[in-house]
Specification:
By secondary structure, the protein is of the alpha/beta class. The chain has 2 domains: 178 residues, 3-Layer(aba) Sandwich (Rossmann fold), CATH 3.40.50; 104 residues, DNA polymerase, domain 1, CATH 1.10.150. It contains 13 helices and 7 strands. A 7-stranded mixed sheet has the order 3-2-1-4-5-7-6, with helices on both faces. Strand 1, helix 2 and strand 2 form a beta-alpha-beta unit. Helix 7 packs across helix 8 and helix 8 packs across helix 9. The longest helix is centred in the last third of the chain and has 16 residues. It is globular, with a radius of gyration of 20 Å. The two termini are 25 Å apart. 42% of the residues are buried.
Length: 289
């Protein structure tokens, strides 16, 4: 949803913009085209490896952007360190997993490829998927799969994981996915998603503390917005979207934000056909009063 997001930001020359999830730099490149020659972009990402890819994408805009290896929950520290930035004219959050992260089996995000049970976006954090899968109590596993994966068969999945690890530790994504498929695969026979999808989502959310980080990041972004500045958020599952929706509504009631998108924008059919992962994307936009 690059076109929709960039259009919704209402960018102009000289703006200071924040790309809170720089990824490969696709959104950032389009932002820079709008805000040059006098504008500046700050790009954040918790994944240090992704910053190298973004730097290559943005090489033609050298001197007009700064990339920082930080989670967006810590944007205030980054912006204050810049010194010259008083406020933001635009902020963009794209909460989807990077294709680079999904396709690199060594990162442990993929349910299709075998890799270590890691799932950390930031290698500096200590908790990994391996710890959750092999050391959390069965009841705690069941609870987190239910809450963060919205998985109907959470108890059955947790029980299967507990049984499997009693024979020896589960060490790879392939092993974990197969345990889940054996436990509930037949119940997903008429669904489009892999039976392991929701459980992997739940574990990843816990490893990276994603929902708390999102709440903190959104609130800090709103605080940094100048009057008339817009914030755009692209979410990919209902837990994220609910947080965005409720925070925007809360600031609307306080007279701090105007909600631009009464209902979230969805990707066009052509985009979904060319990029199936975009099918669940929702874009919400608000403007600082």
């Amino acid at each position: 949803m690059v076109k929709e997001a960039i259009s919704s930001l209402n960018l102009k020359r000289g703006d200071t913009a924040l790309d809170a999830t720089i990824d490969g730099g696709g959104h950032a490149k389009e932002i820079l085209k709008k805000i040059l020659p006098d504008g500046k972009l700050i790009g954040l990402d918790a994944d240090e490896n992704i910053l190298e890819r973004a730097k290559e994408t943005l090489k033609d805009f050298e001197g007009h952007f700064k990339l920082v290896n930080e989670n967006f929950r810590d944007m205030d520290r980054v912006l204050l360190k810049e010194g010259s930035i008083k406020n933001l004219n635009a902020a963009l959050f794209d909460l989807g997993l990077s294709s680079y992260q999904l396709e690199n089996s060594a990162r442990g995000f993929s349910i299709k490829e075998s890799g270590p049970l890691d799932m950390r976006m930031d290698a500096r954090i200590n908790l990994t998927a391996y710890t959750i899968v092999n050391r959390f109590k069965e009841r705690d596993l069941s609870d987190l799969i239910a809450r963060y994966g919205e998985e109907r068969y959470h108890s059955r999945i947790a029980k299967a994981i507990a049984l499997e690890r009693s024979k020896g530790p589960i060490t790879t994504t392939k092993e974990l996915a197969e345990v889940i498929r054996r436990a509930v695969g037949y119940r997903y026979s008429r669904q489009k998603i892999d039976p392991a999808t929701r459980t992997f989502q739940a574990i990843r959310i816990i490893v990276n503390d994603e929902l708390t980080a999102l709440e903190e990041g959104l609130k800090k972004a709103v605080a940094w917005l100048a009057s008339g500045a817009r914030i755009c958020v692209i979410s990919f599952h209902s837990l994220e979207d609910r947080i965005v929706k409720n925070i925007f509504k809360g600031y609307f009631r306080l007279g701090i934000l105007k909600i631009v998108t009464k209902k979230p924008l969805r990707p066009m059919r052509e985009e979904v056909l060319s990029n199936p992962r975009s099918r669940s994307a929702k874009l919400r936009v608000a403007e600082r009063l």
